[in-house]
Amino acid sequence: MSGAQNNAEVGEVFVRPVDGTAAEAIAAIAEELAMFDDWMDRYEYIIEMGRSLPSFPAAWQNDAHRVPGCQSQVWLEASEDGDKLLFAGASDAAIVSGLVALLLRVYSGRSRAEIEDTDPKFLHELGLVKALSTNRGNGVEAMAQAIRARARA
């Protein structure tokens, strides 16, 4: 990720928090996923989450923004908003876009400390890593680590 960007230059591409804290976001996602009886329905819900992501600028779809370790192409960008970090993200795969949206719901708009303190173990606790292919599971964990690394930068 190349660093802070001016929102006025790029339009509103960064995900704003809808839940008060990362923990509240995780709890809300858990409740939402629990509404579905099987993983096929959960996958559809996650794909829909990805469709709600703000448009990611084509100029950022490059190696400087690419998250290594993902089977699909995934791009992330961060911007500082006071003491909070906002993230924008995208993928070339529908299910992965949904996973990006899920992670940004948890991490975007949080302080560096909250991001660092929010262990991505929730991905296992929600059953996401187990329900995904090995490569996709590794990829979603790589995305979470990239977000947390940006918070430490």
Automatic annotation (TrEMBL):
Pfam families: SufE. Residues 31-149 form the Fe-S metabolism associated domain. InterPro entries: Fe-S_metab-assoc_dom. Belongs to the SufE family. This is SufE family protein.
